[in-house]
Write a structure and sequence with these properties.
By secondary structure, the chain is α/β, with parallel strands linked by helices. The chain has a single domain, classed as Alpha/Beta hydrolase fold, catalytic domain (Rossmann fold, 3-Layer(aba) Sandwich). It is 36% helix and 14% strand. The strands form two sheets. The protein has an eleven-stranded mixed β-sheet, with helices on both faces. Strands 1-2-5 form a three-stranded mixed β-sheet, with no helix packed on it. The longest helix is centred in the C-terminal third of the chain and has 24 residues, at 441-464. The protein starts with a helix and ends in a 6-residue tail after the last helix. Its EC number is 3.1.1.-. Keywords: Hydrolase, Signal. InterPro entries: AB_hydrolase_fold, CarbesteraseB, Carboxylesterase_B_AS, Carboxylesterase_B_CS, Type-B_Carboxylest/Lipase. Residues 47-539 form the Carboxylesterase type B domain.
Length: 566
């Protein structure tokens, strides 16, 4: 049971957690390209099959350790030793224990079995110690606090012939607590698709800090020289690295498309609205797939999480830990174990404890509010997406009417009683006659989670750019959250996926990146602009090319955009 707990993201397609196999036949020698970044020298390996060079594990920031733990990313020190990228660290990560119950639910377990599993998980949560956690979740040997690295993959012809092509930057998802730059899979076929009828693209993927290492926040934390949203700053630092250095690899810094799923897409929305400014973002286009993030707006919520971390540190590590300075002194292995325990105990159900928060600076308000107020980068073209059943894997399997009310109150502790009542009785009322998009209590909870966390976010981004945005609706069964990631990174190695759908999706994505925001191209069904009529392309395993009105174009999403619950 415990093994499944930590692999279920793969099972239910929340992430692929694949090995770094983007270099199927790497070779390294003095004949291969060496890029001089001034502070470092990097030598490529070559994939002879795909005809591309891969520059792996380029340090883009100094190690976030010691005094830089919980701090802003800093420029890396000069190290002129030739680096061939063989060192492949990932940031410390973990998963919540509620995932076990979700896995049992999706496998068809009855209510009696679910209750038994829930009791086992609760008992396990209460018995965890820093010493015992590794027996439930063995530490990946690649795990390191020194993890701020990125990969650059370049078509061989682009580099050798000194061409300049667009850039596609991947930001991974994983609930802000798991994942790495390779976890979504191998981009080989995506890159091959990009080379059809063009020179292709340069591909970049980055690591960023996760869990308490990247997302601690609150006024107490900030007053002690902690940086809220440090992981967002990691991502921004990497995007600025791209602007400064990607020309050395054949990439055009004026034609950068960022793409992300779930937490990656939610992060991109925060970069689009950074500082509540209309200034240009460090990219020109964005592909935002199922953007999700916790709507943590108040300092009280952030303080509760920070204080919980301190209390658990006192209980599990040392009762002398009271400050950020004390947390900085905790050895890495112990702090990583604490991180695992804090995340394992995440609640309410379906949440991950950590994620971006309103910090008054980089994130002055929630992105939905900033989009509504016109405070966002205006220089962008966007593609948004959401799936047909986003919320199910985050829905408590034993949900009741009372649970829904209590869960909303826990999710939105700042909401007034009147606001909570309106959400429960008017926005998602217990009405099961077909007039709402649900017919029972589980579906009601699922729709609420889908809209609160993903669907409405995608709509807010699309609405901000109605004449320069496209949007797709992914309905391939089961349509769970992040199910489309496997299609984005499809390589023909999974016969459970629909190859036609995968090739079509990859065509849209790469066309969008190559042609200044137009996903259309030869052999593909017409992908319309989102526009004022909220048109979405339906990506289905039965019919490709049908169009429908965005299901998030509803009064519920409109009511939530100004965040009346905040």
């Amino acid at each position: 049971m415990i093994g499944l707990l930590f692999t279920v993201f793969t099972t239910i397609a929340l992430s692929s957690a694949l090995p770094n196999n983007a270099r199927s036949d790497p070779k390294a020698s003095v004949t291969l390209p060496i890029v001089d970044l001034q502070y470092a020298l990097h030598q490529a390996t070559i994939n002879e099959t795909g005809k591309y060079y891969q520059f792996s594990n380029i340090r883009y920031a100094a190690p976030p350790t010691g005094d830089l733990r919980f701090a802003a990313p800093a420029p890396p020190a000069v190290n002129r030793t030739l680096n061939d990228g063989h060192h492949n660290p990932i940031c410390p990560q973990a998963l919540p224990f509620w995932i076990q119950l979700t896995a049992e639910f999706l496998s068809g377990a009855n209510s009696s079995k679910l209750q038994t599993v829930e009791e086992q998980v609760a008992s396990l949560e209460n018995s965890l110690t820093v010493e015992s956690i590794t027996s439930y979740k063995p530490v990946d040997p690649r795990t390191s606090e020194d993890c701020l690295f990125l990969d650059v993959i370049v078509p061989q012809s682009v580099y050798d012939e000194k061409k300049t092509v667009p850039v596609l930057v991947w930001i991974y998802g994983g609930g802000y607590v798991s994942g790495d730059k390779n976890s979504a899979g191998n981009p080989a076929t995506l890159l091959a698709t990009a080379k059809e009828n063009s020179d292709g693209v340069v591909y970049v993927a980055m690591n960023y800090r996760l869990g308490l290492f990247g997302w601690l926040s609150g006024s107490s934390f900030a007053s002690q020289n902690g940086l809220p949203n440090a992981a967002l700053h990691d991502q921004r630092f990497a995007l600025e690295w791209v602007q400064k250095n990607i020309h050395l690899f054949g990439g055009d810094p004026s034609r950068v498309t960022v793409i992300g799923e779930s937490a990656g897409a939610g992060s991109i929305m925060h970069h689009m609205t950074a500082w509540g400014s209309t200034d240009d973002a460090p990219f020109q286009q964005a592909i935002i797939q199922s953007p999700g993030f916790p709507p943590i707006s108040s300092d009280a919520q952030q303080e509760k999480i920070f204080n919980s971390v301190i209390l658990q540190a006192q209980s599990l590590v040392s009762n002398n830990i009271t400050t950020v300075a004390d947390l900085k002194k905790v050895d890495f292995a112990t702090l990583a174990a604490l991180n695992t325990i804090v995340i394992a105990r995440s609640g309410p159900y379906g949440t991950f404890t950590f994620g971006p928060v309103v910090d008054g600076t980089y994130v002055p308000k929630l992105p939905s509010q900033l989009f509504a107020e016109g405070k966002y980068a205006r220089n962008l073209k966007v593609m948004t997406a959401h799936n047909s059943d986003e919320g199910l894997i985050f829905t408590y399997p034993l949900t009741t009417e009372t649970f829904i009310a209590n869960n909303l109150a826990n999710l939105f502790p700042n909401a007034s009683n009147d606001t909570l009542s309106y959400m429960i009785n008017t926005v998602w009322p217990p009405t099961y006659d077909g007039s709402y998009p649900y017919k029972n209590v589980i579906q009601r909870a699922t729709v609420a989670i889908s809209e609160l966390t993903f669907n409405c976010n995608a709509r807010y981004a699309a609405l901000a750019y109605p004449e320069s945005s496209h949007s797709y609706y992914f309905t391939v069964p089961p349509g769970y959250h992040a199910a489309d990631v496997a299609y984005t990174f499809y390589n023909g190695d999974d016969n459970t996926l629909n190859a036609t759908v995968a090739r079509t999706m990859q065509g849209y994505i790469t066309n969008f990146a190559k042609s200044d925001g137009n996903p259309n191209g030869p052999g593909l069904p017409v992908f319309p602009m989102y526009g004022n009529d909220s048109s979405m392309l339906v990506i289905s395993d039965t019919v490709l090319g049908s169009i429908q009105v965005d299901s998030a174009a509803n009064d519920r999403c409109a009511w939530m955009q100004p965040a009346p619950y905040a």
